[in-house]
Amino acid sequence: MTASGRPIPASKDQPAFCYVLADLTTTMVSRCEYAGLRPTHDGMGYFGFNEPHKAYIEVMSFDRLVNSATERNRAFFDKLGLPST
Fold first, then answer.
1. How far apart are CA 58 and CA 70, in angstroms?
2. Going by C-beta distance under 8 Å and a sequence separation of 6 or more, which residues neighbour residue 51?
3. Structural domain boundaries in the chain
4. Residue 24, pLDDT score
5. What is the pLDDT of residues 33-80, one digit of tens each?
6. What value, to the nearest 5°, has the Cα angle with vertex 59 and ends 53 and 62?
7. Is the model's pTM score more than 0.85?
8. Which end of the chain, N or C, is more open, meaning fewer C-beta atoms within 10 Å of its C-beta?
9. Rounded CA separation 27/7 (Å)
10. What beta strand segments (E) does 1-85 contain?
């Protein structure tokens, strides 16, 4: 049930999304590689799909999160006349 009381239909094929915010230490990198995750184009994270659990997994560093948010919102802040950095 949702918060408003509506039923949520059951589905065995419903995908899950897992986002991990972590420092990319050597241990974290080795665990990402062990799980079969691919590095992102900028080298600041990993991503992949876990078929048995039907889960998309994305591991990113805090710096990547901040950089992505800054790039995504730059035009919005410029339009408002606010600094975007």
1. 19
2. none
3. 16-80
4. 94
5. 999 999 999 899 999 999 988 999 999 999 999 888 888 888 888 888
6. 150
7. no
8. C
9. 41
10. 16-21, 38-39, 45-50, 55-60
